[in-house]
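User: Can you predict the 3D structure for this chain?
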Amino acid sequence: MADHTPYSVEYLREELILRPIIVSTGSLNLSIFMSHLVFDVLDWRPVMICITSDILAVGMDHYFDYGSSLVFARAAGDAAMMSTFAQARILLVFSTVLFIVALSCSPLLTWVAVATFFGPAFLWDVDLVQLFCRLNVKYLDKSYVKKPNDRTKLSIKRIPWIKALLDGVIRGCGTFAVVYSILASTAPARVYADWQMWTASEIIVWSTLNRACHSVMTDIRDFREDSEGRVPTIPVLLGSVRRAKVLLTIIHLFTLWIYIRNPYIVFASLYATVLVWILTPITPRRFYQLSFQSQTLVILMYYIVRLAPLPVAESVHSHRL
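Assistant: Here is the predicted structure, written as structure tokens:
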């Protein structure tokens, strides 16, 4: 640990506490949006499950990522740093309690949805080979189990192309699956007419593609570190940030094309495309929140238009005709 350079307390506080909370706001907004548009109700259970799942998945991942800083803090007697980790543990414990309460009040179908869609998020950086070895030691070469450093770590985020895909599926399909599992039996989905602005399929597909593309944006942000660490993210596999940006642009323009009748998705796609070319690996991390919160911006715009005078709302929504 002598050559270990500790992170600042401010940085650790952001990564361990602030970032999980910020990420959870995306699920807060999206779960409320889906509940209202598809089922016309607001239930605390799917919202709480989605929020706490985000906090737990991101919070635990970051807590173990920065575990060496905790070891350093204890050795150095750094009270401020140890306090930050203590606050992170309190956040995780509190979120766990809320998650269990919300899940225990939900039907069995919700448990299945959570295990299916959110389960992989809790194994994001877990060494899958080591996990399998521990469960099946008697069937495997014990020397392989004892020497994990002799091979490349295999975790979900290191499987080529899978990180962005899973991010999109978890936050798009997974959020809807949780909402549907709780509300479908008590609040049947609305019957959509051609003039209505959103459909369930539009919300799911747009959310999935939007979140998957943002995941690639974070890979662009971390391109240098991932290249050095041989993490097979999409930009690393394509060999350059520029190629990744071209791919993202194609996806956003494709989304715009298939949902050209929805002005909100059109705006979201254009907004995301602009950010693709503005943000770079040297852009400060905080500016990538503009990409992450793109859905929040669209949802906010939707409700602002709904609250606007009738002629304004009709003018915007007439684009759907």
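Residues 191-321 form one domain. Residues 137-148 have pLDDT under 50 and may be disordered.
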